[in-house]
Fold this sequence. Notes:
Elements: H1 2-19, E1 25-30, E2 37-46, E3 49-57, E4 83-91, E5 94-102, E6 107-117, E7 120-126, E8 133-140
Antiparallel strand pairs: 1-2, 1-8, 2-3, 3-4, 4-5, 5-6, 6-7, 7-8
Amino acid sequence: xxxxxxFVLLFVSxxxxxxxxxxxxxxxxIDDQSGEAKSVIEIYEKSxxxxxxxxxxFDAKHRKDRCNGCAGEDANKPILGLTVIKGxxxxxxxxxxxxxxxxxxxKVYKCLITLExxxxxxxxxxxxxxxxxxxxxxxxxx
Length: 142
């Protein structure tokens, strides 16, 4: 009986622990070249896919910037509020098969994200193969 109760408690605590280690939430973007915090992206789930939109821009000079290089439905939209991560699917420990938009230049890349720790997210944008790309590490906003 004691073993059964211990097992159930261990199982339930594992579920709660796993829920706290999800990509859903607010993430502070860190520029991979300068190391500066640039913005906050809110990652959310919609219809079983993962999306992320810009909800805060730290540099006041750039808060009203528009995505001038963007094409299609994102053309000339304000960067603040823009959905930059689109349609990622969970695949084991990573999310992939989606796209990420760089609003600085309007280019769209394939994307994969991996939770490195509960408060650190690895974001990789690439062309063709994941080897040919750029990686940023984002920090969870608490």
